[in-house]
Amino acid sequence: MRQFSKAGRRRATLTALAFGLCMAVLFSGGRAVERVSAVPQETYDELETFTNILSIVQKNYVDQVDTRQLLEGAVNGMLTSLDPHSAYLTPELYKELQVDTKGSFGGLGIEITNRGGVLTVVSPIEDTPAARAGIHPGDQIVKIDGEFTKDLSLADAVKKMRGPRGSKVVISVKREGVAQLLDFTLTRENIQIQSVKYKDLGDGYGYVRITQFQERTATALEEALAALSGASGDKLRGLILDLRNDPGGLLSQAVKVADIFLDSGLIVYTDGRLDSQKQKYFAHKSGSHTEFPIVVLVNGGTASAAEIVAGALQDHKRALVLGTQTFGKGSVQTILPLDDQSALRLTTALYYTPSGRSIQATGIVPDIAMENNVQLQKVEAKKSPQQQFLREENLPKHLENGNSRDPDADPSLKPAPKPIKDGGEEPSDEEDAPAEDPAVQGTMGELGKDPQLDRALELLKSWQVFKTLVAKND
Question: What pTM does this model have?
Answer without folding.
Answer: 0.72
